[in-house]
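Suppose you are handed only two things: the residues of a chain and a line of SMILES describing zinc ion. What would the bound structure be? This form records exactly that question and the answer produced for it, so the two can be stored side by side and reused later without any lookup.

QUESTION INPUTS
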Amino acid sequence: MAENQLLDRLRMRFNQANKKNIYLISGVSIFSLLLIGYLLTGYSSPPQKLASNSNQDAQLSSFPVFKPDTKYGFILDTFHVSKDKIKPNQFLSQILDEHHVAYEKVDALVRGSADIFDVRKLRAGKGYTILAKDATSPAQYFIYEPDVYRYVIYDIENATAKVVEREITTEIKSASGIIEASLWQTMVDNNLTQDLASRLEDVFGWSIDFYHIQNGDRFKVIYEENSIDNKPVGAGKILGAYYKNYDNEYYGIHFENDKHSGYFDLEARPMKKNFLRSPVKYSRISSRFNKNRFHPILKRRKAHLGTDYAAPYGTPILSVANGVVTKASRTRGNGKYVKIKHDKTYQTQYLHMQKFAKGISPGVHVKQGQVIGYVGSTGLATGPHVCFRFWKNGRQVNHLRLNFPPPDPMPEKDIPRFNEEKDKIVEQLNKIDYKTKKVAASVESEKEDQETAP
Ligand SMILES: [Zn+2]
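ANSWER OUTPUT
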């Protein structure tokens, strides 16, 4: 299960990151803070912190000005600063109590900040900073960092909070790799940010099963790398990618217009399919669709009209396509199950759930990839798994054998612009080498391959 946890960690998404920076303190207030800092508290800093020639500093040229240590929009030197990480089961009230904040103040802060960043969203293991006038005074600010992209400033005195997005710079990068153990390990070996793996999965996950890829599979990718303060923090959008799986070659080209955005193959067909490959990520097929299976509990031959995906208890189960929930109920055999109608032809059913996801009940519309429940072993099940059943025109069929109708093609009028962008991306992809030493060796031994690869 450690592997699953790792994968979960690797897949942390930062999609919400807003590229706009909000400056907390305007030039004017920096000016006044500096004045307060220097004149009232008698602060002085070491000589190596001499002022740079920024505007604010220039205005202060008649004062003995030093470059202050600023973070989160505060001049840290003017505060008593404490840094720590939230401990398991630790509440904000406990932390603030240790920093001399009265309970009524905490209570007011919790209520005043609920709509901005609810303190119930604070997580153990995440870092925080507390600013106070001095070691014995009550804390004035509690600053929490949910992720590298932003921080939250809780203003204790005024019982309010503010979320500040950090400024992200984006640079276009390219990368490549040849897989030996797993896509994730290859990312590590090539010093690539690991969320690039999940971005690649977004591009090719509809065609390639990344959990059963083979040694020697290879990829090339052109992508946006996000940095904060010149430090890479993760992969952004992939602009184009190439993947060779067994003898199949795949290209994914990013394209967007005002109506749609996504990945397309070289013939401008969408990479995204109408149905997900499976209803659970990181799962393995533990029993296939089989009209003549020996049932492990009933101890007799009984058709298995579904595909079983084994996964740990509590793993999210996803709707494989958009649709409407027709059933969310329980029977002795199925345990807790959900059935979804996708269109007049297809329905899907998910059995043995531990519980339904919040809000899942008959009549509710669900989107492709939406969590509808969690893996369990209710009903006739020997262990945690989803029995996934696919209905076509009222009959249960093996979805792994189905050829689904292709998704809507790109509008004709977009194709010329797509071709232009595609040619540029493909040309750049072709220029990328497989760099690492390990890789060089395996490329040597596969020269015939190389001629067909880009
Ligand atoms: Zn089953």
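WHAT STANDS OUT: Residues 1-61, 437-454 have pLDDT under 50 and may be disordered. Residues 40 and 451 are 73 Å apart (CA to CA).
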